[in-house]
Amino acid sequence: MPRLPKSARPIAEALAGVELRGITYAEGSVAAEILLALAENNCQISTVASKLRPPLLQRLPLPDLVSIVAALGEQGLKDDLLRPPLQAKVAVAGPGLALVPPSRLLRLATASQQSSCIAQTALGPVAGAAAQSLESWTAEDVSELMLLVATSGFAENSPGAKRLFSRVTEVLTPRLSALSATVLLKVVVAAGAVAAHCLASPNGANSSAERWAPAASSPLPQHALFGNGGCKEKKFPVDKDMLESTLQEARLLAGCQLVAMLESRKILPEQLRGLTEEELYNELSGWEEDPEKLRRRQQTEGQLRQEVEKLGEEVETLQHRCSAAQSRALEAQASQVEAQRRSEFQLGLVKRQLQSLKRGTSAASGLAQRCRDCQRKAELFDLEREALQKEAAMKKKAWQAASSQAADGEAAQLLAERTQLQQQLRKTREMVELSQLLTDERMLLEKRKMTSGEMLREIAALEEQADDVERNGQRVVAEMRSSLERLAQRSEDLRKAKDQAEDWLGAVWAALNQQRREQLLLHRRVKEEDQWASRLQERTEALVDELAVLERQAQPQNSPNQGQEETLRTLALLQQRRKTLKKDLSSHLAMSRHVHGKLKDAEGEHKLLLEQLRPLQPMLRDGREQS
């Protein structure tokens, strides 16, 4: 991945802060790409490491997590920040780690040189995973991994390292003839380091020591070819172990390459040039019998040793140069592949965004049509509500007028009846008293004239009159009592009707107040949503502008590739189109929310008015029938 220039780092830091705030809820692949880009550019690496925690850690793909941890290790992050993700997922991945590409596993193993936490926790599992898929590894990568594991000081005695070293013999044996001197040297150094470690350990007599010790203690190619003072040994002793055989063959091949280099430099005598390995051994063995030839052989050995030392220095220099050039070429190739992958990913992302925008545009069109329909329904509901309110007000006024008129008429009639009955009762009492006085006076005047019979008849008549007067009084009292009871019942009915009217007016007033409060809350909510929508739109535009600035800065100057320029222009047009569509979509969504709120409020008010008018419907129906 190309590094960001220093001028773009403040923008990258700002964008990193924005992305890291919401990365916990992002998709696994998207979050992995963001974290990898930040880790490789050394941008807020401590925050990136702190984000490698559940629940985001479970959503990250294992290959991307391996690359992220390797990049953090290359940047020299502290071990306490790297240990949680390594222990939680990488170290316990098991067979899933074998599915990670070899380049990423090798990168994690290389990062163990700079991070002891990676060497302690992940190098052993990486070696075990590599042992499962070692056939897909190149010889250079296998030798590099062997050297890293053997010289790490932490993982060379782990179960994964043992599986790796046991599998190396099976994989490298068929490839020995095609291996370079650098690869052979790495394999030999790794074998020697493992054997030395196994022999130095308390259990040095185990199978690993027995397997690697003979190879590590075997003579060097120069000693094997020329011997010490006339040794007639022509080949290495072959052990039954496959790995020892592999190392011996590697040493013989290196010796043959050295002989070819010496022959090309015209150092060997004429009679020894062009000989095979077996013929060279036979010729050198025959020189021991002739003193002259023995002296020539010793001179030749001295010259060869000097030349070998020079060649060793030159080979080491060339190896350093080749490794540096190879690393630069690999980095350039990797950066080119990564840039191509990112461009393809961006193109795919733009295509997906266009498809989503297309779907969003069609959905927004349908939503706008539904919004217009809902708006028309809301207008109809408003008109119906106004008509119902007017009708309710008119009926309320008519009911109040009728109630007041009926109450006034009936009360006046009852009061008149009560007054008339009281007057009649008063007159009756006066008539009774007057008749009693007249009777007493008549009795006093005619007492002497009346006989006993007449007195009896008069007494009977008076008793009958008294009975009649009493019956009339009782009838009048009963009529007055019934009138008073009717008056009290009517007064109670009027009081109940008045209470019902007051309750209805209170409910209507409360409903109107609630409606006003809801309208105010709705207005405030709409204002807040508009403000948030405008802020979101401004932030989106700012991010798009920053992205355009980054694309212009990252774009190579005077690029001869016309297709990339066309792609960038197309991306700019698509981004402008995306801005327009986002604005339209946000406006349609705001309008739809507003219309839906109005529609719900209108339906609620309609239902509330119907519920409030339900107690008055019988009275209104009676008023219509009476009218």
UniProtKB/TrEMBL annotation:
One of its GO terms (molecular function) is RNA-directed DNA polymerase activity. It comes from the Eukaryota. Keywords: Coiled coil, Nucleotidyltransferase, RNA-directed DNA polymerase, Transferase. Residues 301-328, 371-504, 533-584 form a coiled coil. This is Reverse transcriptase domain-containing protein. It comes from Cladocopium goreaui.
